[in-house]
Amino acid sequence: MAKKIFLLLALIILSATNVEAADDDLPFDTLAIAYPVDESSILALIRMKSDGSLGLMVAEKSLEPIGLVGYSRAVYDFYLTEKTSAGYPPLIFNLVIPQQQRGQVDDDLGDWSDNVHIVPVYALFDVKDGQVICQKPFYSASGLNPSHYQGKIQNPNHERLIELFMMYMPHLHESVAAQNISLP
């Protein structure tokens, strides 16, 4: 079921981003956007018009394709968890990559449906002065619900999307707070 939701979200957003349309024509509303460095890369909180579900979209102009992550409070607040003596708990989520071409590194990670690649991500990080510091490499595995994440994510586009997603999250929180958006 979760796979179908991810795929639907990925396909809808992909088709919407490839067509210049008025905001009313898009299948989603953009609730908040974070682009702390410049407008060449973003992390956006979106709400689907069809069912009201929330998602997160990460993109960089120099990268093809975009990345999508299903919204959950745990993923959204990952960097706010309390640090223990062992550090922060790992961030685990599925990165949906629509329009992914096969024949690249990381093809054996996650799962595929046509040209939509869903990559489970296991990412270690630290937080210093409110900023997320990614600890590479990021890890993954085959299938969607792995018990162990032993494969290294090696595709530089995948690495960059994960890095942007994690680093921009505090900025997305600021944008959501500035707009007085209440999230579940």
Notes on the structure:
This protein is an alpha+beta fold. About 25% of the residues lie in helices and about 35% in strands. It is built from three helices and nine strands; from the N terminus they run H-E-E-E-E-H-E-E-E-E-E-H. The strands form two sheets. Strands 5, 6, 7, 8 and 9 form a five-stranded antiparallel beta sheet that branches. Strand 7 and strand 8 form a beta hairpin. The longest helix is centred in the C-terminal third of the chain and has 23 residues. The radius of gyration is 16 Å and the shape is globular.
Brief characterization of the structure:
The chain has helices at residues 2-17, 73-76, 156-178; strands at 28-34, 41-48, 54-60, 67-70, 91-97, 111-113, 116-128, 131-140, 151-152. The chain has 184 residues and is of the alpha+beta class.
Present the secondary structure layout.
Blueprint: H1 2-17, E1 28-34, E2 41-48, E3 54-60, E4 67-70, H2 73-76, E5 91-97, E6 111-113, E7 116-128, E8 131-140, E9 151-152, H3 156-178
Antiparallel strand pairs: 1-2, 2-3, 3-4, 5-7, 6-7, 7-8, 8-9
